[in-house]
């Protein structure tokens, strides 16, 4: 008999969805209207042995408690800050994620955001479309990237991939994270505050969770300064959003480019109204190739678990 699983969100890969249907009895929570999901889950909960979820949705203690036979939670994404490990660990429930396969696309978006905000690409697009070029409206110059310093907060796979790309643009590089990264030739700053003070661009690549919540605070933004730029492709929780809005509005921070926000998909109106920001809707990994690869890892982890094989990408 096929194992029964809860599928919390659809994969854009038709192949991934077909494989889930082939190998498991799938209860598709995402297909049920919000007001009916609690009843739907309650009806299938006694037989559910696995959950396929996303990094943003994760799984909380309440849902885990409803699933007495739960054995594995397969997260489609790197971040597991929305997974309640305190609820899962005592029951021996395994957790997997999808590292590695999305590194390049997320790093590419980080660089695209940095370029877009530094060269004011969205504003210049609007300038041309509005006929201001033809009308002879003056355009203020932007600043060159070469010779500037990019500080990278979080120097794991994605942080290092961002660094390698920015080096090609002639930027100097620094990083900070709590532990020293062995085998890299990029200098490590003494603290996050020091990194901000030493950087023209601060690129946030650190993991989410309680340990990093609000670490990019008013002091860090002040250290980055009125000519500085914040780029965040990690988690919105790392940045003190009200402090960010105030710093941008008051000119104490030069600009920001953000793919992630504190309360997604809600973006504060005050942030969206600012002219010195570039905003994208958490699409760092949203390419056809990467979303397929992520979904395939979810399938592979679920199959490995239920077939008694080692998990491809377990989370400790």
UniProtKB/TrEMBL annotation:
**Domain D-isomer specific 2-hydroxyacid dehydrogenase NAD-binding residue range list:** 111-284
Record CDD domains: HPPR
Annotated InterPro entries: D-isomer_2-hydroxyacid_DH, D-isomer_2_OHA_DH_cat_dom, D-isomer_DH_NAD-bd, NAD(P)-bd_dom_sf
Entry-linked Gene3D superfamilies: NAD(P)-binding Rossmann-like Domain
Q: Which Pfam families match?
A: 2-Hacid_dh (PF00389), 2-Hacid_dh_C (PF02826)
Similarity-based family: Belongs to the D-isomer specific 2-hydroxyacid dehydrogenase family.
The name under which this protein is listed is 2-hydroxyacid dehydrogenase
Per the UniProt record, the source organism is Pseudoduganella dura
């Amino acid at each position: 008999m096929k194992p029964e699983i809860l599928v919390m969100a659809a994969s854009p890969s038709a192949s991934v969805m077909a494989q889930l249907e082939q190998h498991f009895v799938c209860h598709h929570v995402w297909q049920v209207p919000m007001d009916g999901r609690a009843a739907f889950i309650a009806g299938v909960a006694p037989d559910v042995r696995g959950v396929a979820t996303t990094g943003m949705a994760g799984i909380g203690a309440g849902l885990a408690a409803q699933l007495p036979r739960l054995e594995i939670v397969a997260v489609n994404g790197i971040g597991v800050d929305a997974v309640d490990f305190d609820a899962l660990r005592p029951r021996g429930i395994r957790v997997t994620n999808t590292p590695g396969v999305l590194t390049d696309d997320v790093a590419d978006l980080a660089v695209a955001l940095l370029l877009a905000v530094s060269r004011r690409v969205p504003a210049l697009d609007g300038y041309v479309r509005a006929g201001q070029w033809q009308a002879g409206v003056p355009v203020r110059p932007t600043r060159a990237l070469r010779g500037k310093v990019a500080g990278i907060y979080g120097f794991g796979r994605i942080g290092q991939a961002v660094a390698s790309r920015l080096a090609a643009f002639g930027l100097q590089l620094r990083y900070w994270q709590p532990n020293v990264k062995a085998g890299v030739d990029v200098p490590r700053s003494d603290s996050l505050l020091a990194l901000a003070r030493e950087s023209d661009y601060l690129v946030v690549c650190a993991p989410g969770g309680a340990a990093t919540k609000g670490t990019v605070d008013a002091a860090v933004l002040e250290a980055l300064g009125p000519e500085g730029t914040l780029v965040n492709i990690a988690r919105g929780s790392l940045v003190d959003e009200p402090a960010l809005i105030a710093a941008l509005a008051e000119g104490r921070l030069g600009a920001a480019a953000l793919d992630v926000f504190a309360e997604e998909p809600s973006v504060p109106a005050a942030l969206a109204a600012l002219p010195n920001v570039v905003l994208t809707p958490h699409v760092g990994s949203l390419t056809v190739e990467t979303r397929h690869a992520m979904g395939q890892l979810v399938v592979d982890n679920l199959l490995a678990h239920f077939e008694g094989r080692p998990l491809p990408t377990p989370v400790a």
